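Query form — protein N-acetyl-gamma-glutamyl-phosphate reductase

QUESTION: What is the three-dimensional structure of this chain?
INPUT:
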Amino acid sequence: MIRVGIVGGTGYTGAELLRLLARHPQAELAVITSRTEAGLPVAEMFPHLRGQLDLCFTEPDRGALAECDLVFFATPNGTAMQSVPELLESGTRVIDLAADFRLTDPAVWEQWYGMPHHCPDLLAEAVYGLPEIKREAIRSARLIANPGCYPTAVTLGFLPLLEQRAVDPTWLIADAKSGVSGAGRKAETNLLMAEVGESFKAYAVSGHRHLPEITQNLETFAGMAINLTFVPHLVPMIRGIEATLYARLTDTSLDLTALYQSRYANEPFVDVLTSGSPDTRSVRGSNYCRIAVARQGNSVIVQSVIDNLVKGAAGQAVQNMNLMFGLDETLGLEALALLP
Ligand SMILES: NC(=O)C1=CN([C@@H]2O[C@H](COP(=O)(O)OP(=O)(O)OC[C@H]3O[C@@H](n4cnc5c(N)ncnc54)[C@H](OP(=O)(O)O)[C@@H]3O)[C@@H](O)[C@H]2O)C=CC1
Ligand SMILES: CC(=O)N[C@@H](CCC(=O)OP(=O)(O)O)C(=O)O
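ANSWER: The structure tokens for N-acetyl-gamma-glutamyl-phosphate reductase are given below.
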């Protein structure tokens, strides 16, 4: 059994980790932290876990965490990097659901996240935890940078086109929409139902912090500098991301659906549609990314959907845990989407 700790067990991604791990046949939840709810039985806050989990939230204590085989950080950006060096030193492996280890250049981190990096020496070692591109490195990693939600949907959507050099990498557009759980569980006026409901808007139009992360990914496949316009939107739903991606084809003779099907043929959690458009409810609660690709003249349009809390966060983190500990990659992630 893998002895698991979760730092940040009261947030949305922490709660989603609890849902997935409570029934995972090879994981034993040993430590679940919350600074504000320390002492409270976990199942009292989350009644869906009654009878599944007999643990209380505890203060984040590095000693207790260092006794785990694996610690997930489901905490705000800039939190994990304070504890990771000590945990790795004690032999504990780490998956960070935040952005602390996603960007390879500490200067780019500081520019977008507004704080100096606490352990820039670990950035070269950290493995970006997108199994579809880093499966082998993930297996032996001590430290995983779990990808952001938008970067997961956008990267998987553009990947086959860029690897195949089928589009102009200097003209890429990602028009992405997220449900409000993407913003976390903290109380904020602009996330109230009366503010978000029956409304729809773009945000961070002049630059979202996922832009450098997506750019870093896409440049690896393109083998050159790319130019991406990325605009996120907030939609009045709870879970889900839909990313509509646009690019200009350099080769219009390609069978695009066949290209995507062949690239993802062996991927357990990427499903390429042969017709129609994927909707977010077809992945809600599941670890799938569902993709469709179409053409208008020399433009290609890709539609990519995920559940931001599952393939966009906790599910992908469990997929990474399975790989790190030599388990079947799909273990504990068999749930299908919830309809309606
Ligand atoms: N929501 C989403 O869809 C996605 C989120 N992410 C990333 O995952 C991380 C967690 O997100 P989410 O679950 O939405 O966030 P929430 O705001 O819902 O939860 C944050 C959690 O972290 C704990 N926490 C806050 N500050 C600290 C601290 N300094 N030390 C220890 N624990 C702390 C909080 O509990 P307490 O204050 O009681 O300790 C809480 O449990 C973020 O970095 C987010 O950007 C990534 C992909 C998708
Ligand atoms: C709807 C919404 O607010 N979404 C969040 C996504 C944040 C997130 O997932 O953060 P990291 O992946 O960087 O950790 C946002 O745009 O800030």
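ADDITIONAL NOTE: The CA atoms of residues 255 and 284 lie 29 Å apart.
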